[in-house]
Amino acid sequence: MFPTSSMYDDMDEELAKSTYLGVPATPRETVSSSASSSRLSTVVFANCPKAHACGVQLGTTIAFLGLFAIAQAYLWDRSAPFFAATSLLLCSYEFLWLAHHSTRALTASLDPDQSPNGTDSCGQALADRFFGGRLILVSLLAGVMGGSTYYGCTWYGFNVLNSSKGVMYPRTIKALGTFTGGGSGLLSVYCPSWSAAVTLICFGAFFVCVSIDAIAYQASVLSHKFVMDNGELYAQGGSLIIALMLFSPAPPIVSLILICHHLVGFMYIFGCCSAISGYIEHLHQTFAVNLLSGVLYATIGASFAQYLWHRCLEKSCGSSRCNLPLVRCLGADSPRLFEILASCLGGILGMFFTTLHVDIVGSTSASVVYTGGAIFVANLGRLFLAVLKQVAGDAPPRGIFGVHGGLLDGLQLFLPLILAFSPYYRVYLGNPDPAGNGTRPN
């Protein structure tokens, strides 16, 4: 039997159904709209640790910006140092625990006398002995003692400084000292060791000293008998931290690792948080707030771009030869080139959006170009936290967000970025006004 023309027509029709543009078509099943939306939500909200970290970073920065804007508008227009002090104390507390766990992981085989339980706070033994195990009472008592001590020191310090009575400068410093002292005392009993607790208290004391000059410029009071040099203060702070670690009863190798960890934390966390107060050192208050807001918007744009990259684009561009890991020691956790470039693009858009609404010092092109370079540097500067986390392993989290991370995770891009912006306003504003009136130079 020979095939007829109708049979050829049927074969052509079947071939047309099974192919499209010469490519074999994949059989498709009928899927309801609810199932399609379920698949889409599964893809978008699938478990992605990097996207989750970027989401925490994005949410924390938005919350920081919102609280800062509310405080500036409705509470007090000189609240920047208090936000900086809060960030310093909470980030330092989380960093000291991270350094503690990474030190234990590195020295487990070198220190046979190491306690098997590395999660107890240093004040827990004191609470068990005198307060019936109620650690909150110990922390409140330490906070009251710390705030009172800092207030007494600032009150006595103004007898040395030639400051006029009734101006905002002494009251601001006393309030900042009391706030920082109370916060550092409150958190110190929750630190992993007494040396870490003393380090946290020293961080707060150094921050108050650094803020004195900054707030003095803002309040137009420059009648000091002396002006503290920040570089000298950093050197003295680092020397004190080394001395504190040397008095620890731990073996020498443990003390050496602790010295390295605490010095890095002093340079990274203390340096970045003190830069927030430094933004009001040479600037008029309005321009300082605008620049700080621009950095926050740039951080939000960069974090959102990184989030979209990990959710939507990473798989499609992950095999590209140009998408190189930048830090080999981190392995799969290393950020890749395209991820940082996407972050720079998002930060540039965030800064450009800010320039449309507020007056940022310098030209728009200069601020936008500088933002791209600063975000690239900030992405590299925050990688040592990833190294510490990788060394610490599966240690119990001590962040304020629990298993979702902490403030240090949320501000890990903002802190180095605000430090990277410090040369920007110094270049555009030059030397401080010797008259101390806090205005921008012509």
Strand content: under 5%
Number of strands: 2
* Poorly predicted segments: 14-29, 39-45, 430-442
> What value does the average pLDDT take?
74
Q: Which strand order does the major sheet show?
A: 1-2
* Structure annotation, total helices: 17
Sum up the overall morphology in one term: globular
Q: Radius of gyration, Cα only, in angstroms?
A: 27 Å
Tally of structural domains: 2
Q: What series of H and E elements makes up the topology?
A: HEEHHHHHHHHHHHHHHHH
Short description:
The chain has two domains: 48-77 and 284-442, no CATH class; 79-279, no CATH class. Helix content is 68%, strand content 1%. The protein has 17 helices and two strands.
Describe the protein's architecture and organization.
The chain is mostly helical and 442 residues long. It is 68% helix and 1% strand. The chain folds into 2 domains: 48-77 and 284-442, no CATH class; 79-279, no CATH class. It has helices at 5-18, 33-44, 49-75, 80-107, 124-130, 135-157, 168-188, 194-218, 230-246, 252-278, 285-317, 337-355, 364-381, 383-392, 407-410, 414-420, 422-429, and strands at 19-20, 23-24. A hairpin with a 2-residue loop joins strand 1 (19-20) and strand 2. The longest helix has 33 residues, at 285-317. The protein is globular. 39% of the residues are buried. Residues 14-29, 39-45 and 430-442 have low confidence and may be disordered. It comes from Saprolegnia parasitica (strain CBS 223.65). This is Phosphatidate cytidylyltransferase. It is found in: Cell membrane.
